[in-house]
Amino acid sequence: MTSYDEASALFTHSSYVESGLDQAMESFAQALTLRQLALGRLHALTAAAESDCGVAAGLAGLPERAERHHRAALEARQELFGSESEETAASHHNLGGALEATGDVEAAAEAYADALAVRRRLSKEGLDDTAAESAAALGRLKADAGDETAAAALFREALNVYRHTLGDHPKTADLVMSLTLALLGVGEEEEGERLYQEVGGCVHLSPPFQQLNLSILESVLEGYLEWLRVVTGTHHGLKLSKFCGGQV
């Protein structure tokens, strides 16, 4: 196999054991160097290798390195494909993930917003999984920043897509719960409770989210996780800390 094929095989291996990921990063780096020498910086395959290096670095917990690769991929793709292309949008989104991991939340939100804007324009009838992915990522940052109104609109946009394209799926379930919490955060308890019932809820959610005591919230999330187990057939692995600021 070529270096790049070897890297791809390692990268897609489901276990992502540390040694395998290290090998993948090394092979991707070799592929990138070879492509830069043989094809130059402004080539689709070189840009793809930059992107692969960025994804691998992100998985390895090296967000600064991931950011460098995604910026390089973005610059190349903008020149190669223009600003209104899925390749460019994907690099905006990937850069957002790297920036978020470095803690630069403001820049991450801008990158996700850039990806979402392009993907909205490219999507047909508004039913595009990639646009939904960017909307959900931006919504998460808005929710973390306390802008529950903006977060709810973004989560609702993504959820409408996933309901049509994915149906019962962990991504759909995540968005149902994220939207529920955002709606409760702005006092829209009726719609929040209706959404919660979709995930098998049995707790009456009448007070605003900020006033929910931890035992009630835990019951809500346990109902959600049980629904996920039915959908996926396995334990989804989510933790309460995802919804409680990491303090549970």
Tell me what you see in this structure.
This protein has 248 residues and is an all-alpha fold. The protein is built from 11 helices and no strands. It has helices spanning 3-11, 18-39, 44-59, 63-81, 86-102, 105-122, 129-144, 148-165, 170-185, 189-198, 214-232. The radius of gyration is 20 Å and the shape is elongated. Residues 9-18, 201-217 and 234-248 have low confidence and may be disordered.
Query: What count of helical segments does DSSP give?
Result: 11
One letter per element, helices H and strands E, the order comes to: HHHHHHHHHHH
* CA(first)-CA(last) distance: 47 Å
Number of strands: 0
The helix/strand class is: mainly alpha
What is the rounded Rg?
A: 20 Å
Q: What is the helix fraction of residues, given as a range? A: over 70%
What's the overall average pLDDT, rounded?
77
Instruction: List low-confidence stretches.
Output: 9-18, 201-217, 234-248
Basic shape = elongated
Q: What fraction strand?
A: under 5%
Q: Mind summarizing the main beta sheet?
A: none
The quaternary state of the protein chains shown equals single chain
Q: Which key phrases capture this entry?
A:
single chain, 248 residues, mainly alpha
SSE arrangement:
Layout lengths: L2 H9 L6 H22 L4 H16 L3 H19 L4 H17 L2 H18 L6 H16 L3 H18 L4 H16 L3 H10 L15 H19 L16
